[in-house]
Hints:
Layout: E1 6-13, E2 15-20, H1 25-30, E3 34-38, H2 49-54, H3 57-65, E4 69-70, H4 73-95, E5 104-106, E6 112-116, E7 125-135, E8 140-145, H5 160-170, H6 175-183, E9 198-200, E10 203-205, H7 208-221, E11 228-230, E12 233-238, H8 239-250, E13 255-260, H9 272-278, H10 310-326
Parallel strand pairs: 1-13, 3-13
Antiparallel strand pairs: 1-7, 2-6, 3-5, 4-8, 6-12, 7-8, 9-10, 11-12
Helix pairs in contact: 5-6
Amino acid sequence: xxxxxxxxxxxxxxHGRTSAFDLSDSVKRxxxxxxxxxxAKPCGLGASLYIMLATDTIKRTNTYFQKDIIGTTSDIxxxxxxxxxxxxxxxxxxxxxGSTPGCDIYDPIPYDKTFVDMDNDELMGIxxxxxxxxxxxxxxxxxxxxxxxxxxxTIDLRKISDIKxxxxxxxxxxxxxxxxxxxxxxxKMVIERRTTPQTFLGYTIRHKDEENRDMHARFGAExxxxxxxxxxxxxxxxxxxxxxxxxxxLGETTSINFLDYSCSPPRIGMSPEEIERGIQPQPTPxxxxxxxxxxxxxxxxxxxxxxxxKRTRKRNRRKxxxxxxxx
Length: 327
C-alpha cells in the first residue's frame, strides 16, 4: 500500500495455542520483519488477567512505546524484556499462576499460533499500541499513531471496523477492498458450529462454554480453517493471518513487534518430534529491524602490497642477478 518505513507494535492478551513449529514457505515469508516478545515459554502457559492487572501491563506497554523514540523500537523492546522479566518472575513466585515466564524475543517469529477470545472481556484483545515511522539515517522513530487527532486510540485488531478505521488513519486507498475481503468467507474453509447435547433431569441442554471449548479444540487441531468471524469480530485467528492483515493495511515492508501474553500449549495432534524441534533454543538473530544502523568498522586498515604479475617477478630477478655479477 505504501512505501513509508513503518513499525507497528501490537499487544496480545488472549487465549492462545501454538499451531505449528514447522512453517510453510509462505508463512515464513509472512513473518519477515517480525519480532515476538513472548511471556510464555514455547509450549508453556502465559499470564492470567490477574497478573495483567497486578503488573499494570497495559499501561506499562503504552508508556514504553507511545512516544517518539531516539534509536529503534527494537532497542525499546529489548529494554522492555530485560526490565519486565524479574517483575513477572516475582509475581509468578508469589502466586504460582501459570508456568515460569520466558520473556524471550524471537526474531523472526519461528512458530504460528491460534488466538481465541470468546470471553468478551474488555481487557482481552489484540491492541495496536503504536505505529512509528522510521528515519534510518537520522536514527529516530516518530510516533504516527496514536495522536491527539485520532479518535480511536485503542484499536483492537480483532474488530473489522477498527481495521477499517486504521486504514483511514494511515490513508490506505484500498481499505474498503481489504475489509470486504475479510468479511467474504466464500471459498474459505470455515469452522462449523457444533454443540454436544447433554441430558439433565430429562431435559436436553446445550452449554455455550462447552461449544466454545469444542470449537477451540477443533480449530487448534486443523491448520486449514479460515479466521472465524462473528458479526464484526475475529473470534479465532492465526498469528500468520493477523500479520498478513497488518501488512496489507500498513504496507508489505512494515515491520511488526508483537507483545504476546497468551498461553502457548501445542495444538491437538502435534507430533512429539515437532514439539521437540520447537522448544529448542532459537539462534541469535543476525540483525535488528525497526531501523537498522550501519555498523562502524573498527578494524585498523592495513596497506596491501600491490599485486605483481609472474612475468614482472621474473624480470626483476634477472635484473637482480645481472646487477650482482656486474659488481
